[in-house]
Amino acid sequence: MSTDFLMPDAKHPRRPSSGRPDGGKPSDRPEWAKGLKRLYDSVVEEPLPDSFKDLLSKLDDSEA
Q1: Per-residue b/e over 21-47, b at no fewer than 16 CB within 10 Å?
Q2: What is the pTM for the complete model shown?
Q3: How many helices (H) and strands (E) does the chain have?
């Protein structure tokens, strides 16, 4: 059984403490990454459509 996953080495270095693979700060992100994050955030903040709420309600009723 291989234990490569237990101990980091040159082939499997640990990720930098910033959590980013390149070790940079979030403010160092390229402009396209900032735009992608803004787009993602705007989608997450959108309200749930009524048709989707109705579908979820029907699914809940069918389980009871």
Answers
A1: eeeeeeeeeeeeeeeeeeeeeeeeeee
A2: 0.38
A3: 2, 0
- Residue 58 is which amino acid? K
- Residues shown for the chain: 64
Alpha helices in the chain (DSSP H): 31-45, 50-63
Say how far apart CA 46 and CA 24 lie, in whole Å: 30
Residue 26 amino acid letter: P
Mean pLDDT of the chain: 76
Task: Show Cβ contacts of residue 8 under 8 Å, excluding neighbours closer than 6 positions.
Answer: 14
Residue with tokens 């101990």: 7
Split at pLDDT 50, 70, 90, the class of 52 is very high
